[in-house]
Write a structure and sequence with these properties.
The protein has 120 residues and is α/β, with parallel strands linked by helices. It has two helices and seven strands; from the N terminus they run E-H-E-E-E-E-H-E-E. Strands 1-4-3-2 form a four-stranded mixed β-sheet, with helices on one face. A hairpin with a 3-residue loop joins strand 2 and strand 3.
């Protein structure tokens, strides 16, 4: 490798694609639980509005298996404890708060995927 700095080729991650068993159910779940607005939808995928320059897409997968061995991404929140309590009140499976910094926990979405929530 050259001793000169390598030019950065990528500016940012543009979108996250999360596999789901049933697109309609998953879209409804994320809209109901988090209040994400639907940006677009086709027969296999749907995009939800979270923040500017952040694509969050659900993809219906025929041989779907929930992501349970790791969390594929984090949702950043202002108050992780308050969000955890609101999810618990909605009957959503949540983990205990994780040790260390940042303050964080995991939850299972309507498809059974485990997602992390961190306090930003």
């Amino acid at each position: 490798m050259s001793s000169q700095a390598t030019e950065k080729l990528v500016e940012r991650i543009d979108a996250v694609f999360l596999p789901v068993k049933d697109l309609e159910e998953a879209l409804a779940w994320y809209q109901d639980v988090f209040g994400f607005a639907l940006r677009w939808k086709n027969s296999r995928m749907g995009g939800l509005a979270i923040a500017p320059n952040c694509g969050f897409h659900l993809v219906q997968v025929a041989d779907f298996q929930p992501i349970e061995q790791y969390t594929p991404f984090n949702f950043a929140v202002k108050d992780a404890e308050a969000v955890r309590e609101r999810l618990r009140e909605k009957g959503i499976r949540v983990s205990d708060m994780r040790p260390g910094e940042p303050l964080r926990f995991d939850f299972a979405d309507g498809s059974g995927n485990w997602i992390s929530v961190i306090q930003a």
